[in-house]
Write a structure and sequence with these properties.
Helix content: over 70%
Largest sheet: none
Radius of gyration: 34 Å
Structural class: mainly alpha
Number of domains: 2
Distance between the termini: 49 Å
Order of helices and strands: HHHHH
């Protein structure tokens, strides 16, 4: 099943409404243009075709609106089910005395051949602060911070 968000449905509906309005305006412009050339009112066949087109567009719009409403209802049901599951998980976590801690994924250390990273790590091992390391090496504070964070030496 094609999953669409409510926003996507509304944008699609807006696009269809605009296209329909442009089509109706185009048809009216064509009818007026034809009437000005002939100075004759449109025939019964043309009027019947126009009525049928308007009725078909109304039917298509009603069908689309019904589909949008059904999708909105489904989304509401899914959101409610998700909220219930989240509530249940929170209840279970409060009952569990040893809730598992979330570990941050470990980042790869800088490449071993990077002399700047090695210099930063050596100065950090000697106990210098990030600012002192940055001043001593000429590396920006943020980069020193990044190197230390990536290697876990902070």
């Amino acid at each position: 099943m094609l999953a669409m968000t409510t926003r996507e449905f509304l944008l699609l509906q807006l696009g269809m409404d605009v296209a329909l309005a442009l089509l109706v305006l185009f048809l009216l412009w064509q009818v007026r243009r034809a009437m000005s050339r002939k100075n004759v009112l449109p025939g019964e066949k043309e009027m019947q075709d126009l009525r049928q087109l308007v009725e078909d567009s109304r039917s298509a719009t009603d069908h689309f609106l019904t589909a949008v409403q059904e999708s909105r209802d489904t989304l509401k049901e899914l959101a409610r089910a998700l909220d219930e599951r989240e509530k249940r998980i929170r209840e279970l976590l409060t009952l569990c005395p040893e809730a598992p801690e979330r570990k941050e994924p470990e980042a790869d250390p800088p490449p071993a051949g990077d002399p700047r990273a090695a210099q930063v790590l050596a100065l950090a091992a000697r106990g210098l602060s990030e600012r002192e390391i940055a001043r001593h090496t000429g590396i920006p504070d943020g980069e020193v911070n990044l190197i230390l964070n990536l290697t876990g030496k902070r």
